[in-house]
Amino acid sequence: MVSRREFVKQVGLGALAGSGISAVGGQVAVAPPGQDAKYSTEARLIPGCCAYSYNEDLRRGAMTLEDVILKAIDLRVLAVDMTAYYFKSTEEEYLHGLRKLAYRHGVAFSGVACGVSMVQADAAKRAESLNQLKKWIDVTDHLGASHLRIFAGELPPGTTVKDAIDWTVETMKAACDYSGKKGIVLGLEDHEGLTQTADPCVEIMQRVNSPFAGINLDITNFIATPTQDAYAQIAACLPYATNSHIRDHFYDGTLVDMDRIWQMFARAGYQGYMLAEYEVRMPDRLQAVVGVPKLVHQIRALCEKYSTV
Question: What is the pTM of this model?
């Protein structure tokens, strides 16, 4: 039995990405990062929903985060992802109220998200980013969640990828030291800018090298490279996945092969949330009131098909 991180190191990133789902399944028994191999590696794929799925209603005040928590009951999902944009406050009384409401209705928080950028050339700005991350780690702690989604950020003009990775590693290492004391995992999302391809994501994980660091794996955010399509990049990042965001369309409008995605996660022994993140602004999208339940229904069915949940 080897850990998933050790497996990546042994076979190499290129081999892992090129081999797709079979590299993390089949004969290789893998354990989540930071977890001893004695624990179960059976896939546990849990349906959930991101608050961002209701972005338009939340932005214009037609919905609140309290409504999102209650919406989980209607959607028959087990968890919701709470995003910083929509918090009325970060005061303890407000956060504890959300925590209590979720508990009373049997809804888990899959995590919290903040928009702090770690790609900062100036040392003072990196220090401020770290302070902001610590603030959101505390918010996550008050909500009783164990995962905070974070971002590297866009590359400023004249910035090299190497510099951006160095700055991100520096800040994320320090943030993990802080979050680890509270038992909170930091999930770096593959997103616009530095982390929109798999190689920087994996390099950052290997260099941060913390049991409290992982990748918040958004399956539709990768851009193709000459050697890796989106599916290969998902496979490369799966050993580090701590949370997952699911859309049914890539940004070029093509449909995601959802069954293929679930097979990849199942064979990787992923244990965690498969969170609907519906995107209304994409072409020909249904409104959230129709589109979100449709996507969630598909996610629930696939979770039942490929795991014990």
Answer: 0.87
